[in-house]
Amino acid sequence: MEGSSLWLIGAFAATVLLVLYLLRRVAALKRRERERRKADGERQRYFEENDLGNTANQLRFVAQSRLRAVPPVNREAVQVLYALDDWIADHRPDWRVSFEVAMGAFVKTSYNPRDRRQRAAFSSYNSKRVDFLLVDRLGNPALVVEYHGTGHDLSGDADDRMAVKRLVLKRAGIPLVEVPAGATKRQVLHLIAEELGP
């Protein structure tokens, strides 16, 4: 009887130890789950507080920032703008010039929401901006002018961006004039004449 009592005591002690171990594991798992949920909640709150798709957040961000008006065209490029204005006045008085225009505003793909390639193409150029866009009297894009001055390669990827722009404009049938840094008004007018004729 003594042997079986010892065995029962040993089994009982082992069971108690096992139960204690399992209770600690369950408690640890519950603690980890609470911490994970708390972290998930914090991430969700952070996302909601910083979601730029939310107009209230956009208003808050703008209200918290110091903003100031700056010239939309730098001092070098404004000389190109004035040359374009003069060319328009002399050659196409019913045309207009815009600057810093997103390419997605005047170049579209053939719309097919299921065609991933068309969506990818549009996303590839949509946010890229052209320096100057000349439009005809009906508002159709007639000429793009890119000025390669000091502000052209601020991010170090100007050549790559220009390669995409060139291809988009070529495929869309929109002429492109690339004006080198420091070009004079006469040189700008000559480049336009070369592209569009007198």
Topology diagram in text:
Elements: H1 2-50, H2 55-64, H3 75-91, E1 96-102, H4 116-125, E2 129-135, E3 141-148, H5 158-172, E4 176-180, H6 185-196
Helix pairs in contact: 3-6
Radius of gyration from CA coordinates: 33 Å
Instruction: Label the overall shape.
Output: elongated
Query: SSE order in H/E notation?
Result: HHHEHEEHEH
Strand order of the largest sheet: 1-2-3-4
Q: According to CATH, what is the class of the largest domain? A: Alpha Beta
Architecture of the largest domain, CATH level 2? 3-Layer(aba) Sandwich
Amino-to-carboxy terminus distance: 119 Å
- Unreliable sequence segments: none
How much of the sequence is in beta strands? 5-15%
Helix content: 55-70%
- Largest sheet descriptor: 4 strands, mixed
Number of helices: 6
**How many separate domains?**
2
Assign the CATH topology of the largest domain. Trna Endonuclease, Chain: A, domain 1
User: What is the arithmetic mean of pLDDT?
Assistant: 88
Structural class: alpha+beta
Total E-strand runs: 4
In short:
By secondary structure, this protein is of the alpha+beta class. The chain has helices at residues 2-50, 55-64, 75-91, 116-125, 158-172, 185-196; strands at residues 96-102, 129-135, 141-148, 176-180. The protein folds into two domains: 2-64; 75-196, Trna Endonuclease, Chain: A, domain 1.
Write up this protein.
The structure is a single chain. The chain folds into two domains: 2-64; 75-196, Trna Endonuclease, Chain: A, domain 1. The longest helix has 49 residues, at 2-50. α3 (75-91) crosses α6 (185-196). The chain has a four-stranded mixed β-sheet, sandwiched between helices. The chain has six helices and four strands, in the order αααβαββαβα. It has 198 residues and is α+β, with helices and mostly antiparallel strands.
